[in-house]
Design a protein that fits this description.
The structure is a homodimer of 737-residue chains. With 737 residues, the first copy, chain A, is α+β, with helices and mostly antiparallel strands. Chain A is 42% helix and 24% strand. In chain A, strand 22 and strand 23 form a beta hairpin. At the A-B interface, strand 2, helix 6, strand 3, strand 4 and strand 8 of A face strand 2, helix 6, strand 3, strand 4 and strand 8 of B.
Chain lengths: 737, 737
């Protein structure tokens, strides 16, 4: 569980609604924070100070302008001399100029250090998204019926990219790690999601337009209001600015009541109609349905795939020969009925998750293949760095684990494998960081959590969550189903163990404490070894002790005859325990969107009159690996093209023939826009050219070899550089014109 | 649309509820029919006659037994002589024996010619299903919570088989045919499924236990009742038997009222409680939900993936360069809230579909690659053969198309491709037939429909539907959305065409027909060319004609001034038309289940003391391609095994190492049960053995070559026979002991 909702899980367990709500929205709102420093309330002091001092300076300058304005008016009223008035006006104008300059500085400060960057980010995104939608990488679903917010189709190239990403995921994780892949239904009965906590806690706070009934996410409205004030209204005082910032920083901590109070205090109304809003109330984000015809079996579309693995633990453990560790994996659709989806592919109502549940003995979290990733070095953003306002830095994975920054080897191993997975897909390693969860983001049972965050035009986006969730999930389903989901370590020889036995004498306790007897019994049984032995000693020496019973909130006197405490020797043949689970959880759609942005660039056409779009997908993910173009329309060339096409099909290389008479330059541009890495152009019946997309370089190879050359590079057996070295270069004027 | 519900589509269009219901259940109930002849009311006369004559003979014998019994009693009462009485008793006993013999024959006749076959089919299924569930090919979902009917998980080997089947589907169809693959959400807004007809017509008839509320499929109850009577009660008269058979044969034609009447007539009660039942009423089989928080946007989990393709037609046509033909494809989950699922993996509430929509010009249904399949020969079951009680026979595909049995080349091409797909997966070609839909099974708009049916222990199961659906689906969405989903053929030169223009003169018609004017106008405009020209001639000669207006149900007099009919010449630059769609639709889960059964067999262990289970999966679909076994536990052998494992990983061959000390024979048996085709056994550090699963033959190859030999066979570059010929044979006693 918990990809895309890594935080709700903490919430679910903690059982405190307030915390849940905070954590959930902390997660959900992360992308919107992009223009703000990574961790708000510990931004570098210099920056915060500069903004605050600018606000103060602006307020002072404003007062000075007003005072001087009054002075000028007074001079005029007093009919002072023209030079005197002119001098005063000049001074006023100069003050106004100074004020305007401070305003500009403040504007820059509040919109982030890269004020212009934000603009070009927006323009970059627009160019990428236009290309993506025009070439059908994705399409708003049910477009002819005006679509549904938060639902998207992948068109042909997007679908091919997705299926390549999933095939590589399966190769990189399932096959290379011998994981047990399962495939469970999306329709899930209520009892399962009751046990996992989703039925009760998987909610967002919502407000309704009291007249039209339109729904909004309460925290989004408050956040938008604060951001708007801070960025657009430069006249607010430094104190007011600090208050708004405090609201933003603590937004995720606000209860429904506190959120409602703030909305009232600021007079926030419905964005579209300006009508008053209802009080905030929780809305469950699962799509509900009914299983079977009776209407008596509520069900939900699963909000994650992980539960399907947890409920199968017993069978999977048996399948694995009753041995730990092992990992199970699942790829599938998950559903989330967002209140008001935004941000295109990043926040959608239906998405593909790929999740791994790696089950380990909590007493041994080493990993046999850890040495294979130990020397990887990449951007990490540990908790401490976030708290002190520093930024992510390159750390050797082995160091992070040995220093205890990363909790254990297995967690470290998966962080390393996720890094390799993402960068091999084509994610830019400089825009990829592993951010550790802060203590208050994490569930109380979780040992450690790291998110793989990818930077795109929306900011840093959580794309993979990697969490050590301890035994929480298996315990929850054990409790609810009554089926023990445990593992056992068989001892080679029985072990003699000394066990502490606390035996409350219920009769005596009943006589002494009557209705409170149960509380006292439970408290006695809950003592740890040290407490029990101390009590035993005290009872033996004094005959009676004062004992604090938490559930009664007071001390009670315990006498010697009320409890027997002893140590007994037992032979044990095995150790039975609930395994810990380490869970890497991948939001495939988010990874693909970030991959689209990281792969996109534009370059001028040869004539220089237009910008051409290119996706620099590595062959591994490119939707089509190769195109085949007869240079001109001509039966001989077309026949050669068909022969090459047939060899490509035999070699399993996805490709396309384009025999239109369009200029070869236009045909190249068309396929560059789809990210096709290689083009074979037929300009003779003996040999042909192969063009590489990004360098636009071309080599000449024989017709017979063409398919194999492309296959060797797309399969990663050699690089384009190898090919460039081996084959004669082609420098005809026909290239890209 | 329409895989697994190929027949509802006809229904949806016909608009007659009765027909819909019949067709839907005709489809849905097909598997249960397995023990009956393929087409009920035209079974070979000899068989039907024999059953009927047996019933008559039995009734006669029963009367004779009764008469003789009375005679014996009369003799006893009359105190006849002992020899006389003994002779009469002997005659009675001999009559009873004859009766019992007829009973046995009748029993055999009603349970099908293979009465024993049915039993062994059941036993075979039980053995296969036990192995499948024990080895986690599939698992009832949410088992620890006692499961949900009709929901199954694929465990590790099942999941691997499924992903191999889907990968091959993508290779065989999408890549080889350059199809445009899309990936649309499961959550679908109501408007889309309203247009497709599912909201109104995708129903089954249901009855409720009037006291407990338990729901049953009405037709299932009636069918079970009739089958039970026919098979278990041998005393029913030949007339009664004929009546029950007639009910079974026409079951799918029964309206809700007729079904209800039959249930009352036969006194059928709830199976579990014997409580009375409600009248039958339609239950929509879609899982309903609500999109967004308002509760005002109903949505459904899609019952098929096809609609996602149809609504994207315009974009896909543009993506394909505005050219026909092209095919779009989609693999994804579909949902169906079955009233009471039965038959394991064959009738489930959530399943994976793979659908192709091939769009063609209705005036040209040729296919460029048709010649590649024209010589295929396989079992086909054309409409005529079904109607005359004959069985499926081998037909050359080219002949079926050229004789017009298969409507057109493109449909024929896909039938051939489906045949190749299924047989390459490992479906037994002798238990695969292509059955043509009968005229009354098909939608009125459909040109032709064929189902690929696979025979398994449940009978002949429809696994792929291949239908020429004409322009129905695109027109339905054009009408509902207002967005024209059409294609255009541009003429190289404008063409002069003569067009018939029918112009009703509304003013005159209004004066003459008042409120009925609209009906008359529509009827006039709907005339075909021949009718219109006849009317024109008649009006010119007689000045007035009688004209039948369908919607008024009567003739009206049309005068010359009421309509102008003329032929006009126009220049046209293009022909705009709604493409036809040819739709192959694959039920992946059903194909996989049949594949499991076709691959399963048992063979005695070497000691002969037990039956071992084997799946003879071809390498293409085998969940794991290879195992690596050190013969005995030994560090050197384990190291070699690890080296080989690494080469297998590099070669992309899924495999497993088993270093347990279990006997090699047991380890082979364990992997035979998973259908692993090859085992590499390490019994030296220089060379190793490779064992083939079905022949159990072994060759010796060097450690370096081992992975490559396995790869070459699993990739289909050579056969096991090639390997057997090339490498030295291994005949150690260790094999399989």
């Amino acid at each position: 569980m918990r990809f895309l909702i890594p935080l709700i899980s903490s919430s679910i367990t903690s059982g405190h609604y307030r915390i849940i709500s905070r954590l959930l929205s902390a997660h959900l709102t992360k992308p919107q924070r992009s223009t703000l420093p990574p961790f708000f309330n510990c931004q570098p002091p210099s920056m915060a100070a500069s903004e605050e001092s600018l606000r103060k300076a602006l307020a002072e300058k404003q007062s000075a302008v007003e005072a001087h304005g009054n002075a000028v008016r007074a001079l005029k009223a007093a009919k002072a001399s023209k030079p005197e008035i002119d001098a005063a006006i000049e001074a006023l104008n100069s003050l106004k100029l100074e004020k305007s300059s401070i305003e500009k500085q403040l504007q820059a400060a509040v919109s982030g250090s890269d004020g212009d960057g934000a603009l070009s980010r927006e323009a970059f995104r627009q160019a990428a998204v236009n290309t993506l939608e025009r070439r059908l990488f994705y399409i708003p679903s049910f477009k002819i019926y005006r679509g549904v917010a938060g639902l998207y189709d992948y068109g042909p190239p997007g679908c091919a990219v997705k299926s390549n990403v999933l095939a590589f995921w399966r190769q990189h994780f399932v096959l290379e790690e011998n994981m047990l892949e399962v495939d469970c239904p999306c329709v899930t009965p209520e009892v399962v999601l009751k046990a996992s906590g989703h039925v009760d806690k998987f909610t967002d706070l919502m407000v309704k337009d009291e007249k039209t009934g339109t729904c909004y996410r309460a925290d989004h409205l408050l956040k938008d209001f604060c951001n708007e004030m801070l960025q657009k209204d430069l006249t607010i005082s430094a104190e007011k600015a600090a208050e708004l910032k405090h609201v933003l920083a603590t937004l995720d901590d606000l209860s429904a009541e506190a959120l409602g109070a703030k909305i009232k205090e600021y007079g926030i109304t419905a964005s579209d109609t300006k009508n008053p809003l209802s009080d905030p109330y929780p809305f469950n984000l699962m799509f509900q349905t009914s299983i079977g015809p009776s209407g008596l079996s509520p069900g939900y579309m699963r909000p994650e795939t992980a539960q399907g693995i947890f409920v199968n633990f017993k069978d999977l453990y048996y399948y694995n020969g009753n041995k730990l560790p092992f990992a199970a994996a699942q790829i599938g659709q998950a559903f989330r009925n967002e209140i008001s989806p935004r941000q295109g592919l990043l926040r959608v109502r239906e998405f593909t998750l790929a999740e791994i549940e790696h089950f380990v003995d909590p007493e041994d979290k080493s990993h046999p293949k850890y040495s294979e990733v130990v020397d990887l070095e990449f951007l990490m953003f540990p908790r401490e760095e976030q708290m002190c306002g520093q930024s992510a830095k390159k750390i050797r994975l082995g160091d992070a684990v040995s220093k205890g920054t990363v909790n254990n080897e297995t967690l470290g191993y998966f962080i390393g494998r996720v890094y390799l997975f993402l960068t091999r897909l084509g994610i830019d390693k400089d825009r990829l960081r592993f951010r550790q969860h802060l203590a208050n983001e994490m569930a109380h049972y979780a040992a450690d959590c790291w998110d793989a965050e990818i930077e795109c035009s929306y900011g840093w986006i959580e794309c993979v969550g990697i969490a050590d969730r301890s035994a929480y999930d298996l315990r929850a389903h054990s409790d609810k189903s009554g089926v023990p989901l445990v593992a056992a370590e068989k001892f080679s020889e029985p072990r003699e163990v000394e066990k502490l036995v606390i035996a409350p004498v219920k009769k005596e306790l009943g006589l002494a404490f009557k209705g409170s007897q149960k509380n006292v019994v439970e408290a006695l049984e809950a003592m740890n070894e040290k407490e029990a032995l101390e009590m035993k000693a005290a009872l033996e020496s004094k005959g009676e002790v004062e004992f604090y019973v938490c559930s009664l909130g007071k001390n009670v006197p315990i006498k010697k005859n009320m409890v027997s405490i002893s140590k007994e020797k037992k032979k044990e043949h095995q150790r039975v325990f609930t395994p810990s689970v380490i869970e890497p959880s991948f939001g495939i759609g988010r990874i693909i969107y970030c991959l689209f942005e990281h792969s996109f660039y534009t370059r001028p056409s040869k004539a220089g009159d237009e910008q051409l779009n290119v996706f620099r997908f590595p062959p591994l993910v490119a939707p089509i690996k190769c195109t085949v173009f007869p240079l001109v329309q001509n039966q001989q060339y077309e026949d050669v093209a068909k022969v090459i096409s047939k060899s490509l099909t035999t070699a399993g290389i996805s490709h396309k023939i384009d025999i239109t008479g369009t200029s070869i330059g236009k045909r190249y541009a068309r396929t560059d826009e789809l990210g096709v890495p290689f083009a074979i152009t037929v300009d003779s019946t003996k040999d042909v050219t192969i063009r590489e997309r990004d360098s636009k370089l071309q080599v000449r190879v024989s017709v017979e070899e063409a398919a194999l050359v492309v296959k060797s590079v797309t399969d990663g057996l050699r690089t384009w550089e190898d090919v460039w070295e081996k084959y004669p270069h082609h420098t005809s004027g026909s290239a890209d014109d």
